[in-house]
Amino acid sequence: MGKTTTAPPAAKHVLVEIPVPHVLLVTMDLPVQMNALPMETVWEMDQIWRWFDDEPELRVGVITGAGTQAFSAGMDLKERQKLVSTHPNNPSLRLNYPPTGFAGLTRRIGKKPIIAACNGHAHGGGFKIIPNSDIVLASPNATFRLPDVLRGTAALAGAFPRLCRTLGLQRANLIALTAYTLGAEEALQWGLVQRIVPPGELVMEAVKMAAGVAAMSPDSVVVSRAGIREAWETGSVEGATRVTAEAFAERLMGGENVREGLLAWREKREPKVQSLNLQ
After folding, report:
1. Which residues have C-beta within 8 Å of that of residue 33, sequence separation ≥ 6?
2. Among candidates 45, 210, 245, which has minimal Cα distance to 137?
């Protein structure tokens, strides 16, 4: 088990663990309702991910759902229906997600990478987490779906542009306009999922991958991720290169982890990486 310098924020329906040093494992823990999240839990998860980015002992996150059937079925529709019926003229009460979106993840930019271990159905808001995750592993029974057109809602928490960037116009429209259910194998072929892992090994494999990333220079990981996401967000290759270099180049290349990494290469040994130096 790893340690942190500060305690994680309190949360009712979220399990927070540090299974190995520098890796945060977050589990949405409402398996009876397919890990559909009430609004309170959405805000609690936003606070957890903010804490994760600020906590110096943590470098990589993993998100998964409790049970074997669902990653997350999205928002708690019973709660949402009640809010719609009791506050028809107050949209702020019905749409009051944090700026980072559903589960604090669908619009998160953040600083550190998060790996999704999709252990079953990822529908609605649960699916919206997937295209904004940095790496996605899935079990063979995972399915991905946006049922909003069946409910009269829309994926307004960040899914539309991210799906279009990742999958292309026509595939994104197939998912958004027809409530098409994407299986794990097809998601792998489309590039949305990077690896399919047996259910009993999924979280372990995600933690193992996260530990591998956490063993790298945390400065390099943060800057590499920022550069890739800048290109993805802006669509300008040269613009993303310029913005990333202006933000990080001097601090990264003058940092202790670069000096140690180059020295370790010369001495033919593993580098002894230090904590993130880009605060």
Report:
1. 73, 76
2. 210
Neighbouring C-beta atoms of residue 37, cutoff 10 Å: 27
Each residue's pLDDT, cut to its tens digit, for the chain (279 residues) gives 678 999 999 999 999 999 999 999 999 999 999 999 999 999 999 999 999 999 999 999 999 999 999 999 998 877 766 665 565 555 555 457 899 999 999 999 999 999 999 999 999 999 999 999 999 999 999 999 999 888 777 888 888 889 999 999 999 999 999 999 999 999 999 999 999 999 999 999 999 999 999 999 999 999 999 999 999 988 776 776 787 778 877 777 778 887 888 788 889 898 888 887 775
pTM above 0.85, yes or no: yes
Residues in the chain: 279
> Dihedral (C-alpha) 217, 279, 112, 212: value to the nearest 10 degrees?
20
Residue pair 14/29 in contact (Cβ under 8 Å)? The answer is yes
From CA 46, how far away is CA 99, in angstroms rounded? 9
Q: What are phi and psi of 144, to 5 degrees?
A: -130, 130
Span between the terminal Cα atoms of the chain, in Å? 25
Q: Helix, strand or coil for residue 243?
A: helix
